[in-house]
Structures are given as C-alpha cells and as structure tokens.
Amino acid sequence: MSQLKEGAMVDIDRILLSIFQRAFKSITDEMSISLTKTTRSPILCEAKDFVTGLYDAEGRMLEQTENLPILSFSLGPVCRVILEQYGEDIHPGDVIIHNDVFSMGNQNNDVAVFKPIFYDETLIGWAAAKGHQADIGGAVQGGYNPNATEVWQEAIRIPAVKIYEKGQLREDVWNLIFANIRLDIVQEDIKAQVGACTLGERRLKALAAKYGVGCYEAHKEKLFSSTEKMMRSEIASIPNGIYEGESIVFYDGKHEGTQFTVRAKITVEDETICFDFSKSSPQTKGFVNGTYTSTCSAITLTFLQMINPDIPHNEGMIKPLRYVVPEGIILNAAYPAATTFGNHLCPQVADSIFKALSLAIPERVTAGWNHLLCSLFTGVHPGTDEKYVDICFLGMKGGSGALHQSDGYDHIGMIDASGGVLDQDYEMFERQTPHKLMRHEYLKDSAGAGKWRGGLGVITEIELGGNNTTMVVFGDGDIKPPYGLFGGKESILNRICLTYADGKEVVPMSKDMIEGIPAGTVYHQVSSGGGGYGKPEERKREKVLRDVRNEVVSQKQAEKIYKVKSDAN
Question: What is the pLDDT of residue 568?
C-alpha cells in the first residue's frame, strides 16, 4: 500500500474546487440511493436509518450523506482504526466490516462496511456505508435488550475484520458472523452496503482518472482548509465565554426511579469551541449508556443545526471542534458496559447544548424536541412463518422545538436524525408485519405554546396480530415533557399503553420488554410535540385562529394560554 503525498505544485482552480466538492456530494448521494433501492429491511429502505460516506487515504472525511446523522461521525474514526490495525495489509478488493462500540463504533446494531479505493495501486480513499441492522445477535431479537448489563448480552461484537480479501469472499468469516445473527435479511442488507461502497469506489476512481490523482489530492486539501475557515468564521460569530446547561435522563432500565444528569460546559474562544461533558453522571449499571462516538456525533449534529447549513460536510468542518467526553461517564461507558441505548441519549445532549447557548445565541437555538419513546416488535408472522423485526417509526416521530421566528416542525421525529428518519409506508407495514394500523394522525394541543409554537406530536394505534409478540420499549420523555424557551410553554408527555382483548391495560416503563402479547391487543402511543419559544400571548392572533381552524389548537387552549377567543365564540 502506498499513499500519494498531498498534491504538491498543483495550481488550485476555484471552479474545479467547486466541481470536486459537488462531485464528492453526488457520489455519496448516489451511494445512498443505491442503498435505498437494494436493502430489504424497512429500517433501511423506508426509514433510511443509514449513512454513506467518502474518506481520503488517511480516513479524513471527503463527504457524507447523513440520512441519520447520529451514525455519521463515527465512520472517519473507524477508518483510522482500520488503517492502524491493518497497516500495509490493505489491498484492492478488500472489504472490511465493523460494529464494535469499544473501537469507535456508535451502536452495536449500526454495522459499517468499508472498501479501500485504489488508483494505479495507490490508496486514494475509502467508501463506507453504515446501517442499522434488523438483528445483530445477543439475547434479544432486534438488538435492544433493556435487561442488559454488559455488551455480550446485546450483540455479536465485530471488530474490524475483512469479509472480502483481494476480491474473494472470506466464507469462514462471513459464516461465523451470520451464524450469530437470527435473520437472513441482514446478510442481504450487508451485501447492499458492499454494493453501495463498490459504487462509491467506481465513481471516485473515475473522478481521479478524469482530473489526475495529483489534482484530486491538491483540491481535496484546499477543500479541507476552506471548509475549516468557514467553520471558524461561524464559531467566531458566537460571543466568547463559558456557557453551561444540563438535562436529565430518567431510568436506566434496571433501577426504577433512577436519574442521571447530562452536563454541558461549552467554552467559546475566538474561532474554537470546546464541548466538555466531563461533569455528567457516571455510567449506569443498565443499558442506558453512550459511547464516545455516539456522543460526539450528537454534539456535532446539534451544533450543525445552529450554523450555516451550506458548509460542506468534510474534515475541515469538524477540525475546530473539541470534545471532552471522558471514559466512565454515562456518555462514554467503559468496557464491557451495555451501550445499545447510547444513540438515544442524543436528546439530552442536544437539550444541554441548546440551553447552554440560549443566552449566547438565542436566535439560533430551539426549544426542546420530543424525546424519543419507541417500540420494537418482534415475533413470527403467521402468514409466512418467518421471523420479523419492526421498529415502530410511525409512532415515535414527535415534533421539534420552536425557534426564533419559526414554529417547530410537525411529526419530524427524533433529533438524533435531525428530522431525517422517514415514516414507514402504511401498506408495507401491514404486509411485512402481522399488525394492522388503526390510527395515525396529528394530536391536537400536543405542541408547546409560544410566540412560535412547537411542532405537533402524533397519536398512533395499532392492532397487534400474531400470538406471542414481544415488544421492547426504549426511550424517554414519559416523565418530563419537552421544555419551552423564553416564556414558551412545555409540551406534553410521551405515553405507550397496551390494551388487551379482556380490557386490561398495561403501561410499560420507558425501558422495558413485554413478552407473549396475544393477537388482538391494541397498541396506543402518544408522541409529544416540541416546546414553544417566546410568550404565547405574543403570538399573532391570525396564527392562533388558523391553528384553531386546522384543529392544531383547541378553542380552550387558544383562550386559556394564547388569550385569543375563537371566531366561533
């Protein structure tokens, strides 16, 4: 393996620089389209719970398409782990698979595939794709085990290992991995990720062939430095200072009534910014723990929501950002802790950052988003006798928090995805699972009131089919609702309830597993809206009346909170 030196003595062409930047973006977008069209699990092909990326020979990000941003910022670090592990033993045709949370992975279910890209026997880059797999072994089908206290109860760990070597499938490695995974569909989805990476490889090689490797190297470096300059300019627009904020995590899945604090200390100094979470609570004894990379991804995606959205997504974007997330806290649990919940600590990380920066940049922060509360259904489909796994994306997509001069987005979903997770198709949901969708609609009065209101939440009802369904619940927001800012009101609580055929109602904990659910049971879920921004009485009368007419706000709330009487009265 050899690497070219950075493109020396190559003149930078500003138009060509733009062409390279857009070409990198086009390649990762095409990889994303390929995955959407070739994966089989609804988690991937419908919800788009995946990310595609291009990286240079050193593992530095050229571009990525963040369908689910919480997955995005671990690919580069893992790429560098691979380079350190394999050294010169990287060859054309290699494909490397990885999910290990203790070597820069973010979540066990999020499995990454990497393919080195060579041009004339010289390593010039990497194509990567990471997606949430429907199963990853462990004690519980689907991968979420609220009873887990250590990683081996959650999943098969896959440190970086070659599944293809010099173009040849390593059947021994492949068979070992998938002997420990319940669903054959996962094999097909991993093949789709390999295909997306092959597409990325093909496109980057063609780009290098067209313009020359030296030209590619020189303009890549210029893109990094230009993007870094843009990011430093954004940071410089934030007043210097130290800003602090916190949020609460309720219940670790093992010890009822437990609470844990996520504390952010943000230091802005000219063109640099440091996010220090070292004063957060120690790691839990349950599965409610994060990893270093899931937390850094959460920090990054939250900060990106407050700055220029046109900044290219490459290595230069993250270079001015500093993260302090020491091992042993809830946001970076030490080996061998359970960490499957880690991605879903993103709401608390985001809340603490928004609260901290609300005094520094009040016009850029949002009020509280809905905290994910989600269910995962597993069982055997009685019509096909096949095992299935379904993450109920339909029900979990609550509203975002309002911000200065804008209402929140309705039914946008978790902040982990920055609104990127899509709903399942209703008909496909009923075909792929034995369940029947009975109700799925916006919920009146679910948005936090304010001068700018939060986004609406939703109410979802599903009649469960098939006997012995298992439901795993994971999330938060059933104890404390999304907060309002600057006089805005909080939203409502999340809630999940099962109503059995005999009328018995069961309300699960926010981290729970219920087995043996009989057919005919009705699943009821309320997913909250976002918090409001500014005093409700300052909201324009015509906006309140329009919300009443559209059944977003009730007449009662309009009069009581907004101090506006409806035209109907």
Answer: 53
CB 107 within 8 A of CB 74: no
What is the 8-class DSSP label of residue 46?
Answer: T
Residue 103 has pLDDT above 60, yes or no: yes
Q: Which domain holds residue 61?
A: 2-229
User: Which has the higher per-residue pLDDT, 4 or 66?
Assistant: 66
Residue 414: per-residue pLDDT: 83
Query: Rounded to whole angstroms, how far apart are CA atoms 248 and 186?
Result: 35
- What SS3 class is residue 16? helix
Beta carbons of 151 and 338 less than 8 angstroms apart:
yes
Contact 566, 551 (CB under 8 A): no
By the 8 A CB rule, do 99 and 155 touch?
yes
What pairs with residue 245 in β-bridges? 264
DSSP string, 431-490: HHSS-EEEEEEE-TT-SPPSSBPPPP-EEEEEE--SSSEEEEEEE--SSSPPPPBTTPPP
Last residue of a domain, one of 171, 199, 229: 229
Q: What is the pLDDT of residue 2?
A: 39
Rg (CA), the chain: 24
Rounded to whole angstroms, the Cα distance separating 531 from 497 reads 23
Tokens linked to 223: 């893109």
The secondary structure element, H or E, covering residue 232 is helix 213-236
Give domain status of residue 560, yes or no: no
Task: Compute CA 180 distance to the chain's CA centroid, rounded to the nearest angstrom.
Answer: 25
Burial 264-285 (b: 16+ CB within 10 A, else e): bbbbbeebebebbbeebbebbb
Which residues lie across from 289 on neighbouring strands? none
Domain count, the chain: 2
